[in-house]
Design goal:
Chain lengths: 139, 665
């Protein structure tokens, strides 16, 4: 049961945050914010990264008792963060990877739109649709 | 208001239901004279209205008479209403009398298009009426059949078409055209609801149309209005003259279909941005262009998302048409669809894009014409299309990614052109196929490489290089070994390095050594043969050859060997060159005379010089290859030996280090 998906820009401000649970949205934002530290740490560790897609996927950033946070960073230092419920043990790593791939693809679609300025919040319906689909998918 | 008897009765006793009242008031407003304030109606406008009712003239006269206008000489409100009622009665077949007015009648039907200045349309009305019935598609409006409506009441025969003229290219994209020419037929039923929705975005046009209404309700044209909402009148928004009559064909089309004239307009605009119709318009260019339409950026962004189906950040011609059309529709008040309408999907627009392509390439033109004349070919091409749709999409993606010219499109042109000619039901299928293929195709990205495919391709590319390093590995290892022996064997390094390129000069060296003998060439080759014969024996002769070639360098070679390998375990290898070290000096002449001795038969062959030379060249090549093989084998073996030697050296050095501190202390 997905909790939320966030897209964070290079300068570490959110481009897109969307979560399922409306009441714990603040907590979700907080989680994403704290996960940025871990992401940064992982990015700096991978010094020789040449953009291999496997290295874009950061994997499980940290698990807590409530949820697990997965990270993914693009070549342009845009970060995707997925937060999932810990109770959902059926989610495999491959699935998370595929989700990130889909996110990345949709994100590049948005970027390709000449009317979208990089750095603006993402306001694409197609992107919204994909995210919604993903949030529902593993429900 | 004066009230004749008839009029009075008409005025007071005619029950007008709400619907009729609204309708009539609308018509009344329509027929209002310019200077009206008195409630009298312009007779000519009324006349046109009556004509639009498609009743015979004598009926109309009767109606006029009965309603009292004739007496009055003008149409007042009551007369007008009575007249309308009478018209309705007449249309339903009732006699024109005041009595019939009182009954509950359906609304009078008025045929005629809306306020188009074109005279051509006056001829259309009867036809349009008929056509208007089956066509009822518009955004959000369901298909309309007269049968559905005929029972309860007769709605207007649709013809509240929503038409907006298309301003021809006025200036190079100075301002986007006002509106496309779109016909709409709305079922009356839904007009009320639909119009409520439309009023919101039609309201902005209302100012213009009312003025134009007066202007355009010329005798020859007449348009019926839906009821109630004055904003419904606003449907005649932004009426501008059309240049072409292509609009006529589209009275029953939905707004998302691009008309021929629109297509031409789009083509011109495309050309103004990008002369080559087969090429792409880049995103930035398109953005600049579409921003001029003054639509809000989020909407433009959404339009882009809808139209850029291959998602490459650039617009092909069909995508451009789609985008343009959406913009135009949006400017005319159509809400943007969530997904691309069927008629705008790339499969369809591709057909149209080939229309402008045809002038540019002869082949599609021919095909196009041929297709029309050879329907039998369609079946084949349809089959091809079904099977080749993947190739076509691949072609499309290649085109989009490579910016091919129209000539490339000519290839899939025959396939796509068949889309038009077969029955329409087939048409949704290929576009849907294309659509799914577009969607499932993982991003033919030409301008970015973040997709899985690209990553996989990149991953695939590296595997091919690995074999190459393997080949070079042998050299690299020799270089490594050179580094290993660098301290003591610069000559070795040079010797090894000299090794491969020096093969061809080998005969020359031997030639040099045989300066005396002029019959040298063959002996040169002969040396190889000699060498080959020697090959069969173990590598010694190879090394001999090596050493013989490198005379002094081999001495260096052998010396380090000797020095660094005091232990005789691997002395065989160094000894071989060492042994031969002396040989090069002496046995060379010895080797040469036997070579010379062995070749009196070739000497005989010298008479047939040319063929012999050719053969020998080939033999030399073969021998070179064989020597290469042998030498590589030798190389590897020597390397192994070198490794062993190195290891021993390392152990010895470590022992030495162990011993040395003790010695120093």
């Amino acid at each position: 049961w997905r909790v939320g998906i966030a897209v964070i820009a290079k300068e570490n401000y959110p481009l897109y945050i969307r979560s399922v649970a409306s009441q714990s949205e603040l907590k979700f934002h907080y989680t994403v914010h704290t996960s940025l530290d871990v992401v940064e740490e992982k990015i700096s560790a991978v010094g020789k990264s040449l953009g291999d897609q496997r290295e874009l996927y950061l994997g499980l950033l940290y698990p807590t008792e409530d949820y697990k946070v997965y990270g993914y960073v693009t070549n342009s230092k845009v970060k995707f963060v997925i937060v999932v419920d810990s109770s959902n043990t059926s989610l495999r790593d491959n699935e998370i990877r595929s989700m990130f791939r889909k996110l990345h693809n949709s994100f590049t679609d948005v970027m390709c739109n000449p009317f979208h300025n990089p750095g603006d919040p993402i306001q694409s319906k197609a992107f919204d649709g994909i995210v919604s689909g993903m949030m529902v998918q593993t429900g | 208001m004066e009230q004749e008897s008839g009029a009075a009765s008409a005025g007071t006793f005619i029950p007008l239901n709400e619907r009729e009242h609204g309708f009539y008031s609308g018509l009344h407003a329509l027929c209002q004279a310019d200077s009206s304030g008195t409630g009298t109606l312009s007779s000519c406008k009324v006349a046109t209205l009556f004509k639009a009712s498609q009743l015979p003239p004598e009926t109309l006269h009767k109606v006029t008479e009965v309603c009292g206008a004739k007496r009055l000489g003008y149409f007042g409100v009551t007369q007008f209403y009575v007249a309308l009622k009478l018209l309705a009665a007449a249309q339903s077949g009732l006699p024109i009398r005041l009595d019939s007015v009182t009954t509950n009648l359906p609304l009078p039907r008025f045929v005629g298009l809306q306020i188009e200045p074109e005279l051509q349309y006056s001829t259309i009305p009867p036809g349009a009426d008929v056509q208007g019935a089956p066509c009822g598609s518009g955004p959000g409006s369901s298909s309309w059949t007269p049968a559905d409506r005929g029972g309860t009441f007769r709605p207007l025969e649709t013809n509240t078409e929503k038409k907006e003229a298309w301003s021809p290219p006025r200036s190079p994209c100075a301002s986007p055209p006002r509106s496309p020419v779109i016909y709409h037929s709305y079922p009356y039923n839904q007009q009320r609801n639909g119009l409520d929705a439309q009023t919101t975005y039609e309201s902005k046009h209302s100012s213009r149309p009312t003025a134009q209404l007066e202007q355009h309700s010329s005798p020859s044209n007449y348009g019926t209005k839906p009821t109630m909402e004055h904003s419904a009148i606003a449907q005649a928004s932004s009426v501008e003259r059309l240049d072409q009559q292509a609009v006529v064909y589209h009275c029953n089309e939905d707004p998302w279909r691009i008309t021929g004239e629109q297509l031409e307009y789009y083509t011109n605009q495309f050309k103004s941005l990008q002369p080559d119709l087969g090429a792409l318009i880049l995103g930035a260019v398109a953005k600049h262009f579409f921003t001029k339409s003054k639509l809000p950026i989020p909407e433009l962004s959404h339009i882009w998302e809808l139209s850029d189906v291959d998602r490459d950040g650039a617009l092909t011609f069909s995508e451009f048409c789609t985008a343009f059309h959406l913009i135009v529709a949006r400017k005319n008040g159509y809400p943007l669809p969530e997904s691309l309408p069927v008629s705008l999907q790339p499969g369809l627009t591709q057909q149209e894009e080939h229309i402008p392509d045809t002038p540019e390439s002869i082949e599609p033109l021919i095909v196009f014409e041929d297709e029309e004349s050879r329907p039998s070919k369609l079946d084949q091409s349809i089959v091809e299309l079904q099977s080749g749709s993947t190739t076509k999409t691949q072609d499309k993606t290649e085109e989009s990614s490579q910016q091919d010219t129209a000539s490339v499109r000519a290839g899939p042109a025959p396939e796509t052109l068949t889309l038009r000619l077969p029955a329409f039901p087939q048409r949704p299928e290929p576009p849907q196929d294309l659509d799914t293929q577009w969607r499932t195709k993982t991003r033919p990205r030409s301008y970015s490489s973040t997709s899985i495919e690209d990553a996989m391709k990149k991953a695939e590319e590296p595997p091919t290089p690995p074999p190459r390093p393997q080949k070079t590995h042998s050299r690299a290892s020799s270089l490594d070994l050179n580094k290993l022996f660098q301290q003591g064997a610069p000559g070795l390094k040079s010797g090894w390095l000299l090794h491969p390129p020096a093969l061809p000069p080998r005969p020359s060296t031997s030639q040099v050594s045989q300066t005396q003998q002029i019959k040298v060439q063959q002996p040169n080759f002969a040396d190889f043969t000699h060498f080959r014969e020697e090959e069969e024996s173990p590598e010694k002769p190879d090394e001999q050859r090596l050493c013989s070639r490198f005379g002094p360098s081999t001495e260096d070679l052998t010396n380090p060997y000797k020095q660094e390998a005091p232990a005789g375990s691997h002395s065989q290898a160094p000894q071989k060159p060492a042994r031969r070290k002396y040989h090069p000096e002496t046995p060379n002449p010895d080797a040469v005379p036997p070579a010379a001795v062995q070749f009196p038969p070739p000497n005989k062959l010298t008479q047939r010089l040319l063929s012999k030379q050719k053969r020998e060249i080939q033999m030399a090549i073969r021998k070179n290859k064989e020597t290469n093989a042998v030498l590589t084998r030798l190389n590897s073996e020597l390397q192994q030996q070198l490794k062993v030697a190195h290891q021993e050296r390392v152990t010895l050095e470590s022992q030495l280090d162990l011993v040395r501190p003790l010695a120093s202390t």
